[in-house]
Amino acid sequence: MTGSKFEWLSLEEFLERPPLGLESVVLSIKIPSLETIKRESSETKSRFVFETYRASPRPLGNALSHLNAAFLVQVSPCKDSEGTIIDTCRLTFGGFKNKHAIRAKNVEEFLAGKLLSVRNLYDAINLLTDTATAIIPHDDTSKNVYLSSLAVGFLFQFFNSLIDSPARINNGYSNGHTNLPLIEASQNHIQPNLLSSGKQILESGSEYRPIGEPVTKAGAAIQASGLFRLDF
Questions:
Q1: Contacts of 48 (CB under 8 A, 6+ apart)
Q2: Does 212 map to a domain?
Q3: Least confident interval from 12-26, 74-88, 165-179, 191-205
Q4: 76 φ, ψ to 5°?
Q5: 158, CA 20 to 30 Å: which among 19, 69, 182, 220?
Q6: Residue 95: which domain range?
């Protein structure tokens, strides 16, 4: 409400506007119920898939993410052939050096109503690459390329898991090509060793003594006792 004027805005419209002034106040927030949509789609055997992604310097910590994404799609089995149809989708990205999250609407419109296949996924990835290149500020080329590759990787990982066809991409191969060592190992329930071992020997001497010797931190005892006071 602004003064005596009431307005109903979508989330995107609200985020695109400048911050609220002193004369404006948010009275209520309405979040549509997904259960209602699920009941309506149960007759067509469609299902919803939701996944979030995040890439940051410390994935399990509190570091700011380089890029994050949230994908929500409604898919249903194709009636004419084997495969999966994308009924609707929402592709949202945050961290593109923008003030708020953005939606890749052109990619959503391209995928809506299409059969989920390797070819369509490839075209969607190219479209997302062009979109990311256009919206990212061109102040750091190397960082922009990294953010664009992250967005493409998130999209590929999400939709590749939904492809129900022999052409599904596995281990970087498609159209019948396979990575035989990994395939054979998975069939025999043998996990390939992904870790490598190493050994390093450090020799110490008295030539540069006391360099290299452990030193007690200055003030460590009083800090550990709880008597240390730090004033700013």
A1: 34, 37, 38, 41, 72, 73, 74
A2: no
A3: 165-179
A4: -145, 155
A5: 182
A6: 32-175
Whether 154 maps to a domain, the answer reads yes
CB atoms within 10 A of CB 213: 8
C-alpha dihedral, 58 to 158 to 170 to 111, nearest 10° = -140
Overall domain count for the chain: 1
Report the distance separating Cα 232 and Cα 54, nearest Å: 36
What secondary structure letter does DSSP report for 78?
Answer: -
* Residue 44 neighbours by CB under 8 Å, 6+ apart: 76
Q: How far apart are CA 126 and CA 128, in angstroms?
A: 5
Rounded Cα distance between 230 and 232, Å, is 7
Record the pTM: 0.60
> Which two three-digit tokens encode residue 14?
């609200």
pLDDT of residue 37: 57
Which two structure tokens, joined as six digits, stand for 95?
């961290």
Whether 53 is covered by a domain: the verdict is: yes
What sign for the dihedral angle of Cα 80, 81, 84, 86? negative
The rounded distance, in Å, linking the Cα atoms of 134 and 130 is 6
* 3-class DSSP state of 209: coil
